[in-house]
TrEMBL record:
<dbReference type="Pfam" id="PF00297">
    <property type="entry name" value="Ribosomal_L3"/>
</dbReference>
<dbReference type="InterPro" id="IPR019927">
    <property type="entry name" value="Ribosomal_uL3_bac/org-type"/>
</dbReference>
<protein>
    <recommendedName>
        <fullName>Large ribosomal subunit protein uL3m</fullName>
    </recommendedName>
</protein>
<dbReference type="InterPro" id="IPR000597">
    <property type="entry name" value="Ribosomal_uL3"/>
</dbReference>
<keyword id="KW-0496">Mitochondrion</keyword>
<dbReference type="InterPro" id="IPR019926">
    <property type="entry name" value="Ribosomal_uL3_CS"/>
</dbReference>
<dbReference type="GO" id="GO:0005739">
    <property type="term" value="C:mitochondrion"/>
</dbReference>
<keyword id="KW-0689">Ribosomal protein</keyword>
<dbReference type="InterPro" id="IPR009000">
    <property type="entry name" value="Transl_B-barrel_sf"/>
</dbReference>
<dbReference type="GO" id="GO:0005840">
    <property type="term" value="C:ribosome"/>
</dbReference>
<feature type="region of interest" description="Disordered">
    <location>
        <begin position="252"/>
        <end position="272"/>
    </location>
</feature>
<keyword id="KW-0687">Ribonucleoprotein</keyword>
<keyword id="KW-0809">Transit peptide</keyword>
<comment type="similarity">
    <text>Belongs to the universal ribosomal protein uL3 family.</text>
</comment>
<dbReference type="GO" id="GO:1990904">
    <property type="term" value="C:ribonucleoprotein complex"/>
</dbReference>
Amino acid sequence: MSARAKGLMRSFSPLRNFCRLGARQTSHRRAVEEFAAAQHELIREFSGVGCQSSVLRSSGIASVKKLSCVAVSLLPFSRTFASAAVQDESLNSGGLVLEAKPKPMTAESRRTGVVAVKCGMTAVWDKWGTRVPVTVLWIDDNQVVQAKTKEKEGHNALQIGAGQKKAKQLTKPELGHFIASGVPLKRELAEFPVSEDGLLPVGTVLGVRHFVPGQYIDVAGITTGKGFQGGMKRWGFAGMPASHGTSVAHRALGSTGGRQDPGKVFKGKKMAGQMGAKRRTVKNVWVYKIDPARNLMWVRGQIPGHNGNFVELTDAVYKKPDPSTLPFPTFFASPDEDVNSLQPLEVDLGEADPFLADD
């Protein structure tokens, strides 16, 4: 181990404890196997108890979710987490058991959103020959990092992480947050409010099939920064006359206030200033196509931000999708499914040619 890694371990006590637990993993392997053999009994016995139980502590399990061994790569180290249906008290609250399984969606249900990367714009032609300008979005390794409940945090929400990041690029509080959750290091974090039946256990993977072609979504992101701009570009003012008589004031703002009364410029007056670089939401964006094999999504129109920026995708508020067509709380793929063999899914445009509808 390098001197740099040793120094990091000495300076960061949670990481040092994390390594000690990994070193003791061999001695606890037998206890973990016995714990796995008694899966159903433990689920019934500890369904309402956090992982502070002496049985779980004796098994060397610090964070448990499902009863399957999941290898999670964190930092230069790798540790196998044995997990159960019991949720860690630090990740969820009050003994609430969160299960990753399909549920019926009601009118009051609210699903989580996902974090996507804006790849750029292009154009496609549908089967009727209509040109559709689209933006390509990439759902990059979305995973539930934290589940917040009303009993503990005061509201129901899911914290979603996206992308990958190295340990040296994170602060120590961020690093400890990911270690406590038991998920890989993420580049972007976003929180989405959900209903109680829309909560998901920590570690659940979200893909592009969380949405269906044809539905409407809301896209939120940081707009492209334009710097300091004048009134014509920033607010669309017409400017001064371009004919004779106007001297060095063709793009001037014009009057900004009165005389002695009111004797000031009112707050909120549209004037020159910084333009862009603000959070904006584009509503009712139409999902044209999804590609499950590559986790790509094509949506109609433009969305805010530069190429490569993160954006947040949620179900549309105004044009609500049909609950019967959406996977709730998210899409769960079968374990034996070959994702690479899946074909892209396009929206169903019907059998009536829109160009011959009037005939």
